[in-house]
Amino acid sequence: MAKKSPLETREKLLRTTAEFIAQNGASNLTLDTIAAASGVSKGGLLHHFPTKHALMQGLMAQIAQVFVTRLEQALTTEPEGTPGRWTRAYVTASFEYDPDELQLTTAIASVVTNEPALVAVLQQQFAWIDERIENDGLPAARTTAIRLACDGLWIAELLELSTVNEPLRSGLRDELIRLTRHEVNP
Questions:
Q1: Where are the alpha helices (DSSP H) in the chain?
Q2: What is the CB neighbour count within 10 angstroms for residue 49?
Q3: How far are the Cα atoms of 10, 28, 29, 64 from residue 53, in angstroms, in the given order?
Q4: Measuring CA to CA, which residue among 133, 167, 139 is closest to residue 151?
Q5: Full domain range(s) for residue 74
Q6: How many domains does the chain divide into?
Q7: Per-10-residue mean pLDDT, the chain, length 186
Q8: SS3 per residue for 147-166
Q9: 96 falls within a domain
Q10: For residue 99, what is the domain's CATH number?
């Protein structure tokens, strides 16, 4: 059997952590449990994540990076300097997540609830996005309202509170994109 690269081991530990939190909650997580569930030695886990807090920080950073990667991909379809470019990309990235990511987003809610200090990791990751959206060549109140609509739907879906069916969800996405166009007609 080929030895896994350090990156593969790290990703396996983070994936196992997300799965464990989604099924059992963050309060039940221990480093021993994650090492055993992932098939990685405790020493191997400690090499990557010396503390439970470091493991949680790694998970938060990974979750944020998944979204940032999707946002960067969406930006490639928008011409540079076009008003609303960042906001449109944010809408696209927010609406096009893979349903398998829901396990990671469930992990976010559990982690944030149990360790509020970890919110700083997400705040750092997303501060630059907020700044670009607020200075996107459109009224800041409009772009912020669009971002908050995306975030609200994401939270409703995360908590399984959303009653928005797929046709309505698609229409909502289209309407939010329409609002990012420089000239918005009612």
A1: 6-24, 31-38, 42-48, 52-75, 85-95, 102-114, 119-134, 140-158, 166-179
A2: 21
A3: 15, 14, 11, 16
A4: 133
A5: 6-179
A6: 1
A7: 80 92 84 96 95 88 87 94 95 86 69 72 83 92 95 86 93 96 63
A8: HHHHHHHHHHHHCCCCCCCH
A9: yes
A10: 1.10.357.10
